[in-house]
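Field: COMPLEX_INPUT
Field: COMPONENT_COUNT = three
Field: RESIDUE_TOTAL = 1232
Field: MODE = joint
Values follow.
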Amino acid sequence: MKTPLLLLPLLAVTVGLAEADDKYAIKAGTVLTMAGDPITNGVIVIEGGRITAIGSADEVKIPWDAAVLDASDLTAAPGFVEAYTSSGMDRPNENVELAPYLNIRDSIDPVSFYFEDSLRAGVTTLNVQQGAACVIGGMGMVVQPFGLTVEEMLVRPNSGLIMSAAPKSGKSRATQAQALREAFGDLRRHLEQLVQEKRDGNDRARREALYQGRDLSGERGLGRAMVSDAWTVEGLELVPRGEIDEKMEPLLDVVEGTTDVYFYCGSPVDVHQALAIARDNGFLASTTLVLDASCWKAADLIKEAGVQVVLDPALTRTERDPRTGEEDEVFIPGVFAEKGITFALSSRNTTNESMWFQVATCIANGMSVEDAWAAATTSPAAMLGLDGRVGSLRKGADGDVVLYSGDPLSISSHVEFVVLDGKLVYDRSKDIRTKHLLEGIQPEGGSADEASDEGDK
Amino acid sequence: MLSLLLTAATLAPIPALGAEDTTQTSWNIHAERVYTGTGEVLKNALIAVEDGKIASIRPGRSAPEGAIQAKAITAGMIDLSVRVHGGFRSVEQAREIQPHLSVEPAIDLYDPAWKRLAASGITTALLSPMDRNVIGGHAVVLKTAGPEELAARKVTTPRPILRGAIGSEPSSGNHPAFGTPTDFYSRRPTTRMGVEWEWRKAFFDAVNAGGDESRDFPGAEELRSCLRGERLLIIQAWATQDIRTAIYLKEEMAREGFGNLDLVIDAAAEAWREPDFLTRNKTTIILPPFPAGGRTTDGAFLAWNRTAELAGMGVRMCLSSHGASNATEKLERQGAYARRAGLTFDQTLAAVTTNPAAVLGLSDQLGTVEVGRDADLVLWSGTPFEASSRVVGVLVAGELARDPR
Amino acid sequence: MLATTTLALAALLCGGPSAGDSFALRATRVHVGDGTVLENAIVLVKDGKIVDVGQGVAFDKDVPLIEHDGDLSAGLVALRDYAGIGAEGADSTRAVMDAADLRYAFDSDHPDMARLAESGITTVVLAPGSGSNVVAGMPVVVKPTVRVLRAKGSLHVDLSASGTSFNRYPSSYAGVLEVLEERFAAGEGAFGELKAGRMTVMLEAESRAETSRALDFASRHKLRGYLVDSQRAGELAAKVKASGLGVAVGPFAIGGDRKEVESAVSLAKAGVPIGFALDTPTNAPAMLRLSAATAMRAGLDRDAAFKALTSGAAALAGVGDKVGAVRAGMEADLVLWTGDPVDPTSRAVAVYIDGDLVHEAPETDEEDED
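Field: COMPLEX_OUTPUT
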């Protein structure tokens, strides 16, 4: 249960911090850019929410009217990018198995502790998707973990649909696969019916669209031939797009490759199923697999399909040989790195599964520092279509900067400040919940019992 | 002839490295840095291990051909709160006070958890009975790798170690008898108060019986030897009220003139709340794994950063994994969390090596990288207890329990 | 074959060979039990005992001779079984039931008994069921359908988890040992007999850790007897061998854990005496020879398997001087087989216990076998 008592004081602090300065400059002892060598004594200038200049203090001039965050003893780095999460909503799953028409914007809870914790962990961009307990779920969106409304948080709408090849508990894999295939079969039949009706001079669909008050003007009033790598319905150009059933249309966008898909796989066999369905319906190129830890066994299949993946927060997995009884520890990112598959790390914000810890764990297990960082910054940014905007600090990128007390991956470093779009949104020295957790200090006017925040960590 | 043989034996070269034989106990190991645990950091040191002991340590050497190599080496880690046992069968739940029993019959050396513990860098473990009664019995010190024979794995401590618990766990499951009692859960204690009463009664009864056979009970002698300081007493107490109860028990025994309990508090999550209780009695604590949300068992709250404060006050502390072997909970990670909570490197290293060795009374044998000590060594991929480094190799009494190659 | 049936049927109709009666059996192959196989040998039976075995055995011409075109061996021995006991073999009221005598749970008329005899199993050790007892009673050696062979010869002692209770003392391994050490120290009843070496143990231990502890316990008290339920004992073969205990291995279910079978083979190779547990009614009697065949497939040699089914098991059950071999002086528990007894495709066509024909297979119609 969330305790409003605890939440209110913090919001007051953080919102107070968000000064609406148009020009903002950060001086940092070291700047890790993910777009070239680290900069010593760096300066980052942010104007209108975007980085307009970045370089060493000798090269970059701070505008006279910019607000300056002097963090000369700190290390600046781009915020981490979470390529897939179903946290931060009041409920991650809708009780409908086939609901491509839902949109996550109606479900995101801006005051969820999850977003607060994301700031503490240095995550500044998150792709929030519906939970995977579905067949085909709703449309996700990319947000930043700060803002009082979903609109304020928005980075990119319509990031993609969620599908799941893993059955809900109590269902079989066969049922799940059948339901997935059936969804595309239904779409095809619906489109064929619309074409047939048009040819027959039957205007039922048009009357229904008008009755529902759908937009039939402009593009929406025009028909367009179906374009797909897999299958098409001949004569679809006869049907104005606005007349297609709203509940079906998102799937047509998937087949036409204009909507990305996040396909959840709970086991290696699911990977096979997901790839087959994506291939058969022409959206393999726009698919990202979201993998359970067990799915490393399907790495060859994934490599062959050429898709990108989001890994489970659990990076190691102990497997037991059923014959010898011997246990073997598998380091999962290592398997994907070795095969040359593009992957993004994911996290859970607790110390031992926070994004910086994930990156450090990759390095501990032999990955290069560059590759490990990329898996939490530039790779997920590219997956989300935000290459150059987030995940690296460069001219033109969003003004999202995280400042650490030292090397971001060192066990004793902490996130001291977070700047989003050129606004200071997190200051550790004023973070009462962290104080409470780490120092045992009760927030004034806060809950008398620390247990109240237990469920949120 | 005999002398000839002896010479031959001493001259015999260290067995060929790279051999597949895992029971080999002689090695050459080279590391860029050796954290000896005595405050020294040796650069580019070559450690010779012979017959399970550290035979020599020579800094400033380059790695000879065939030597095992690592970035860093520390002494093997010692976990004083390991729970690899038969679960409910590790403790006799039919009675509250069992100081004469031991966890030993419940030890399963074939449990795969041992390999996981050894691979995580724990080379010595104190195995305790489950805390499902008040005084559960004796804990046993074991090496985490070696033959599956107790005799070969047991480490003898100068003093036996008795284990008990305070808090809600020792009474959990018990209930008052209603109707006809059908099981042994129909018994005291059912509350913290009852647990505390059992502790005091046990010691009072043991002292009062005083060797009078008619009044003696099984375990009475073990309790008296605790009071004589001939036995170490480890009490599990998570919450501050339970830690206080343990300290009060010790102080009451002293006040009554019964004796001086040598007390260690395990799972002391809330030790930070009243540190003076620990300092005034020089009580050692074993910390439970650092919890993500602060909250631990028994409702106790562990405020991470207060750990450093305790260490600064001179409270001797040990870290433990409580037998956890998942990647993020194991002892090497607890060391990292302690660093995050503000402990210095030396304090952290001591909390998993020299401090627990001292608790066991085995400082001459374990806990440091010195000539003559057991060859219990942990090989790291980088700086120990950093998020970006990990345990890559482990030797337990010279046996390569995790091969870094 | 026809002659066999006719004669035997006649014998049955007359109430079988009565006391003092003699008969002779001639089989193509006689498996003596010490590894030797006699071709076309005769076994002479008198008063329920074997009086002579050999190729040139002479006997009076009024002694009926039964000719068998096939194999003859001693009846098989199952080292642990629950045939016909039902719920009578388990009493959980007390942890130590040292005076419970399984003899009183033996029901010779139970259909399970007849099924054992039909399968050529003529000696069975009936064991107490699981009642969370540290000591569940004294197993009894019986001849199915006929009589008790040996009672009060051994004591069941359980050092496995199943010996602990969830609701009374002892609930822990330490408690189990405490109870047993107390009883051994007192040395009363069966415990006195064990200490004096007049009784053996049926020592129950499951995991390797439990087995290791049980072996230590047995050595400490110089116990003789055999382990049961220890399906991985083979991985401690040297220690088992040093203890002097035997092991009741199996039964091996089809598709079961191969490690358990390999364990049995390791034990035999280390020279540990083994026999097979059977556990009817959970398993069909056929499981006894199937277990032996399974072990042979994993490397147990044929003679070792046969010994484990007969004389070896009989010795472990403490009745090696009475049954388990085709030798003069032994009780006439004999089985006529269609082929080698360890071959699971051969069938028992006639079974004798104490010289009495207790089972005869009906004439097989060739067409039925299709």
